[in-house]
Amino acid sequence: MPRVTYVSPDGEPTALDVEEGLSVMQGAIAAGLDGIVAECGGELVCATCHVYVETLAESLPPMGALEDELLEHVVAERRDNSRLSCQLVLGAEHEGLVVALPEAQV
Amino acid sequence: MNVVIVGTGHAACQLAASLRERKYEGDITLIGREPGPTYQKPLLSKGFLLGKVAEPNLVLKPAAFFEQKRIAVIEAEVTAIDRAAKQVAGLPYDHLVLATGAENRRLTVPGAGLDGVVMLRSQPEALALRARLAGTKRIVIVGAGFIGMEVAAVAAQLGLEVIVVEQGERALARAVSLPVSRYLLARHWAGGVRFHFGAALAGFEGEGSLRAVHLADGTVIPTTLALVAIGVVPNMALAAQVGLATGNGIEVDARLATTDRAIHAIGDAAGYPHPLYDNRRVRVESIQNAMDQARCLAQTLTGVPTVYAKLPWFWSDQWDIRLQIAGVGAPGDQAVLRGSPEEGRFSVFRLDAEGRLSAVESINQAGEHMAARALVARRPRLEPSQIRDPEFPLQQLAAA
């Protein structure tokens, strides 16, 4: 199970062991972590599971057109390392992944 | 301080979460009649039924969440409120919140209680339906609303013969414009789903278990499985019983308070005046409405009184089609097409009698829809010619 670290907007890290095959979003929801809203449950509708990928960005699934479109409408600033965490499905190679959570999702 | 919430669904869980996010320190108790952890409802009729979403991934908030946040959850049916003593289920409250949701409207025709006549709203119902879909070759679906249409698409994709029986003249008549309704219908037809419109149900035939569906015109459709999907009714019996105003839902004011200032109502059960629609009373059945009302009420209960004014939005997945709706359309609205149904990407802009944009329905254009959402929230007056013109910069209008 890859260990993923979620860093809150005020810099607080939370490390979670997330089952392979789950997304970064699902890992956060399953642990009840604040900062990822995921209003639509991972269906690419709501753009409320925005994260900034801090490590291992190149190993993650590539961004689809729909995710790219939705990222234009996230509430917090879109940066070069912005992703929607529902699209980041985890494998063994993502051990040590670090994502930072934005100031706001809604 | 003490907040008691009746309900354990999306609205209830989000309210508890938002209160804690806003540093509310008092006790929070959820009382609900469904056992087990809360789950994500929208996926039940879509990915979960199709087998694309596994059961553990339906969890909305895990048990650990409630422990960490000191949120108590009690499994019980609330049948009384002592408003004078401000007590419910033996608990004192400073604020009571009714997040009682809605339940499926039932059919009262003969045979509605037969085995094989099912409904879909809860996770157990979804599990049961999934098992039944795997064991049969045909399903009759009563009702061409969102649940009926989504399940029709799933069942057809699973290889079943699907027959939809609808009283009205078209699919999703209450929710979407005619062009969108037609577009979805065409996709269902292409996928093999067959429809009976203007068809009244006479009853279900069988002994113990279902054998056939009878229509009022004499048509008999043999089947062992029928889904009744004819909409929902708000759970407001408790509110009515304790003397709170009810109508289309539990009646609340702009800040979601009932006629008792210590009691609020949110989610599917609450009917409220919407500022974006001339304070017309609406009751919205959606996740967005439940979550946004919960966040709004959390502000009010933590000392920042807030009027609820969020634009409703909604989505549906049918076959390879993603439908998104922003705003509240009315049957008399003018429907103006932007984009091309032939290419499978278009929107319908709905204009009210005064030419103001009331809603946008989009097919397979998520990005443009997000811009349209911002635009509808401004309720601008638009000319149909502007909407039809692909060069007209709607995005800029939304940002202006």
UniProtKB/TrEMBL annotation, chain A:
The keyword NAD does not apply. The keyword Secreted does not apply. GO terms for cellular component: cytosol. Its cofactor is [2Fe-2S] cluster. PROSITE patterns: 2FE2S_FER_2 (PS51085). Keywords: 2Fe-2S, Iron, Iron-sulfur, Metal-binding. SUPFAM superfamilies: 2Fe-2S ferredoxin-like (SSF54292). Pfam families: Fer2. Residues 2-105 form the 2Fe-2S ferredoxin-type domain. One of its GO terms (biological process) is P450-containing electron transport chain. GO terms for molecular function: 2 iron, 2 sulfur cluster binding; electron transfer activity; metal ion binding. Belongs to the adrenodoxin/putidaredoxin family. PANTHER family: FERREDOXIN-2, MITOCHONDRIAL (PTHR23426:SF65), FERREDOXIN/ADRENODOXIN (PTHR23426). This is (2Fe-2S)-binding protein.
